[in-house]
Amino acid sequence: QGQLVESGGGLVQAGGSLRLSCAASEHTFSSNTMGWFRQAPGKEREFVATIGWRAGITLYADSVKGRFTISRDNFKNTVYLQMNSLKPEDTAVYYCAAAPSIAMMKSGHGYWGQGTQVTVSS
Prior knowledge:
Elements: E1 4-7, E2 10-13, E3 18-24, H1 26-29, E4 33-39, E5 46-51, E6 58-60, E7 68-73, E8 78-83, E9 92-99, H2 102-106, E10 111-112, E11 116-121
Parallel strand pairs: 2-11
Antiparallel strand pairs: 1-3, 3-8, 4-5, 4-9, 5-6, 7-8, 9-10, 9-11
């Protein structure tokens, strides 16, 4: 059974930083691409970043490139999202996901966490 538990969300002022964590079961974490998505009120869920299993290749949405960094610790079965220079438009519920491919993840397949709220005040 896949299990993903996000943490680290909260309220921060614009320009500040937060680090999100996503702890996964070994079954869920092993051999899967890990990713972060977000959903703002009244908007569809959107892709933020992913990191591959073997080479750790990363991919970012243009809106967060240069500000956010995704990383994974394969010994702790945990993926992180370091968010710097936060903007009010980054406010959303952030979801952790795991799937064999980015395509599957973007289509909503794979395993998903319950989400953690990030609020950026201006």
